[in-house]
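To whoever is covering the structure queue this week,

Two jobs came back overnight. Logging them here so there's a record in the thread.

Job A:
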Amino acid sequence: MLHATITDIILKSFYTVYNQLGYGFLEKVYENSLAYELRKRGLFVQQQMPIRVVYDGVLVGEYVADLLVEYCVIVELKAVEALRPEHQAQLLNYLKATEIEVGLLLNFGPRPTFARKIFTNDRKRGLRS
């Protein structure tokens, strides 16, 4: 599995943070806590990574992903009752708009849940031109 070692550390850190904080905080609290936990485990973490969306050579949008880990995994955080299709679409669009191929969607909801998405660069031809 692509970047399995890194995603395993991210998921273990996710559950560590969830077990400490539980449900009910704002996403920013979880973002800061998870970033801290990942750094403590020796990983490089960039918070609030800018993502530019280009269409036909023109910048048409700018978004911000919650975390970029080790330059190869985008992590998007939620604190909602349940993950919805639009949350997964958001993560896939972040992958489409970048050269990052692996993303994790982590939900600090009433029950901790996650989704792993892969969108390989060979499938992205023409999407970022």
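Job B:
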Amino acid sequence: MKSWIKEIQDNGRILLLGDGTKYKVSSYDAYDTKFWMKMDNVSVIGSKLTNHIQRDKTIEVTKTS
């Protein structure tokens, strides 16, 4: 699924995407995601989220409600 980052919360630990889905990021990966930007293009496949603006950086995520 392709989308974009709508909001970054809790110092990069929560990502809200443009389609309304919300993902929890591990503390380890949050170090990177806190520097990502709103509107960055991303793709999600299973538990992997790839930021295409940040050199195709891929992180592990968990979908939340």
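Note for Job B: Residues 27-33 form the longest helix (7 residues).

Please reply-all if you pick these up so we don't duplicate work.
Q.
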